[in-house]
Amino acid sequence: HQLLHGSRRVTSPARDSEHRVVAAVTERERTSESVTLLQVVPVRVHTEDGHRDTLALLDPGSQTSLVSEALLRNTHLTGDQQQLCLETVEGRGSMKSSTRVQLTLSPLCEGEDPARQILVPEAFSVPRVNVRVAEIPNKKENWTKWKHLRGLQLPDCTSGTVELLLGANVLEAVLQREVRVGRAGEPMAVRTAF
Prior knowledge:
6-stranded mixed β-barrel, 5 helices, 194 residues, two-stranded antiparallel ribbon, alpha+beta
């Protein structure tokens, strides 16, 4: 990088030639206990035939919402066929056929009004929503340490499959209403409509 040109060496030349440091991480991040917890919530998808419960990833960094083809098949939801090209941090993908649908969702978390319905005006089908739900390591022993999370009824989403990604086109779903923050490295609790 141009800001590093001419800077003073930190390691000796002999050590530098032995092995190159591409990235540095802290010891804590290399342990098996380091987990990134994403905002995954249980939701109810309403259909003409009834409803289906599933998991959704709340992603305010996405411009649109995505739905797995399996969820569309299982709920018999239909929509318009369109071409979809996803852009990610790795670049622009190829054009693929997708189904554009509208969804009606309601929250399943304790403390939220299950009668409240949120309209997803547009969601595009993808073969699958590639999100793995992480489990909190040593949850039982750590839970008592996290004073900022006491009294909260957090849903257990570790046994389900994420079939929805709700993006910024459903702002009322992804906006943070309340955040409980602990010390550095501790999980935060984010309250949303779900």
